[in-house]
Amino acid sequence: GTNSCANADGRAVTTDKKGAFSKKLPVTEPPKPCPCVVHVATVTGEQALADAVFTVAGHPTADLPEQTGGGKLAVLATTRLEGDSSVLTWFGAPPARRLVFTVGNLGSAPVKDPVFEIGTAHGVYAPQWEERQWRGTVAPGAKAQIKLPVELSAGAHGDYQISLRYGEKVLAEQPWGVGRPWGVTL
């Protein structure tokens, strides 16, 4: 499975009093047989998400890759953001950092090439999640320091909250105060 098949075709909708909505979505041809889903997430208010599986008529499907199970990652130390802004961010270039954290495998099986999700939230908005895969293996009882890239959109400024999620669990959150790109106003 992948989350990159038709992300550009995402749509925003407003719900009724019961939280229901309807919206016509364009369906693109899958690049390879895969399980197709419609992913729904809140933008404001309490964080919630749901996935609805569907089949694209006339195209083959495949099962999700098997989960290795047995491995369980937990953050062992405080997270931090590394890196500095370049002079280009003064003129609206995207601010970038590395989210640094140490995980330990509390399970009984190794965790190989784990896929984390990095969420960026600004103000009252729910995080926008992006997948980041770390290449490596964390053996049972072992720990590893992981550095994942975080980049905001061009011209971003203000207070952001960077979140780290593995599976369905948010493991850590880190605030990031981004300076205003004053070079744009000069």
Question: What does this entry look like structurally?
Answer:
The chain is an all-beta fold and 186 residues long. Helices cover 0% and strands 40% of the residues. The strands form four sheets. Strands 3, 4, 5 and 10 form a four-stranded antiparallel beta sheet that branches. The chain has no helices and twelve strands. The N and C termini lie far apart (46 Å). The model has no long low-confidence stretch (mean pLDDT 84). It has two domains: 1-66, no CATH class; 73-184, Immunoglobulins (Immunoglobulin-like). Strand 7 (115-122) and strand 8 form a beta hairpin.
List key phrases describing it.
single chain, 186 residues, mainly beta, Immunoglobulin-like, 2 domains, four-stranded antiparallel beta sheet
Q: How would you describe the shape?
A: globular
What is the gyration radius calculated from CA atoms? 19 Å
Classify the beta-strand content into a percent band.
35-45%
User: What's the name of the CATH homologous superfamily of the largest domain?
Assistant: Immunoglobulins
Classify the helix fraction into a percent range.
Answer: under 10%
| CATH fold-level name of the largest domain | Immunoglobulin-like
Q: What pattern of helices and strands is seen along the backbone? A: EEEEEEEEEEEE
Number of helical regions: 0
Q: How far apart, in Å, are the first and last alpha carbons?
A: 46 Å
Q: Which architecture name of the largest domain does CATH use?
A: Sandwich
Largest sheet report: 4 strands, antiparallel
Briefly, what CATH class of the largest domain? Mainly Beta
Mean pLDDT: 84
